[in-house]
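Why should sequence recovery work at all? Because a backbone constrains its sequence more than one might expect. Tight turns favour small or flexible residues, buried strands favour hydrophobic ones, and helices have their own preferences. The token representation captures these environments compactly. In the example below, the structure is given first.
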């Protein structure tokens, strides 16, 4: 394990940072997604506060990990999607996961039926892209950043070489797949609410797949004390993604 990353909620990044240093004071650690500063004026002068780091600052920290200058990176949830991924590599992964292909084929079938019944103009731009370009359109949409966000310049997750990804509060990444009309029509009521899968969950799934490519199939650890399920699909998600994990309460 040479390039480990711990993925944690933004509110916990500095607790993780301080607790690790209490145990391993010689560790070289960086927090990606947050930075500390000391207020120099106002009634709170002298207090230590945190704020979001810049894309350039995040990129420098990633390069430090990549080049062996760090022992550990603590990564906030919000910073996870800000590092680019190789779209072709993600596409190759998605095309070999049966549950993804089945879900997208069902969505495309339903869109074709809708277009036939109401005319293609009734579809949104997003729906037309999925209908015409299939898996690639879905991958590109899932990886896209929210408006106003920037990628960390000059770095790609696939090339950093992360070989251990530890996810704190892993229950926050449920709902890869949501219920939808099945092959025989209709949505089973017991499956829960319908809709698109969680973008946050897919961002993690894609990056976990990249880690497994680096390690030959290992390197993913999920930590959670709240493994509550929203529906039977939550159980299917963990097995369909073929992600070898250990869950420690």
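From this structural description, the recovered sequence reads:
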């Amino acid at each position: 394990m040479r390039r480990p990353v711990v993925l944690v909620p933004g509110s916990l990044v500095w607790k993780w940072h301080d607790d690790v240093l209490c145990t391993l004071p010689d560790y070289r650690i960086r927090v990606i997604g947050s930075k500390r500063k000391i207020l120099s004026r106002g009634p709170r002068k002298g207090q230590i506060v945190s704020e979001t780091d810049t894309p350039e600052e995040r990129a420098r920290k990633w390069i430090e990990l990549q080049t062996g200058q760090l022992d550990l990176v603590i990564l906030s949830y919000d910073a996870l999607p800000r590092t680019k991924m190789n779209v072709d590599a993600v596409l190759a992964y998605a095309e070999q996961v049966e549950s993804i292909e089945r879900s997208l084929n069902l969505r495309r079938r339903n869109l074709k039926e809708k277009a036939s019944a109401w005319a293609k103009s009734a579809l949104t731009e997003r729906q037309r892209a999925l209908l015409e370009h299939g898996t690639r359109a879905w991958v590109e949409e899932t990886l896209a950043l929210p408006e106003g966000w920037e990628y960390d310049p000059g770095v790609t997750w696939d090339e950093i070489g992360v070989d251990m990804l530890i996810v704190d509060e892993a229950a926050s990444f449920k709902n890869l797949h949501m219920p939808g009309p099945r092959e025989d029509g209709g949505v089973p009521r017991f499956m829960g609410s319908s809709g698109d899968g969680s973008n946050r969950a897919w961002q993690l799934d894609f990056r976990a797949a990249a880690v497994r490519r680096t390690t030959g199939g290992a390197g993913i650890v999920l930590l959670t004390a709240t493994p509550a399920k929203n529906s039977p699909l939550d159980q299917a998600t963990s097995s369909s993604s073929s992600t070898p994990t250990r869950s420690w309460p």
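A few observations help interpret the result. Confidence is low (pLDDT under 50) at residues 236-249.
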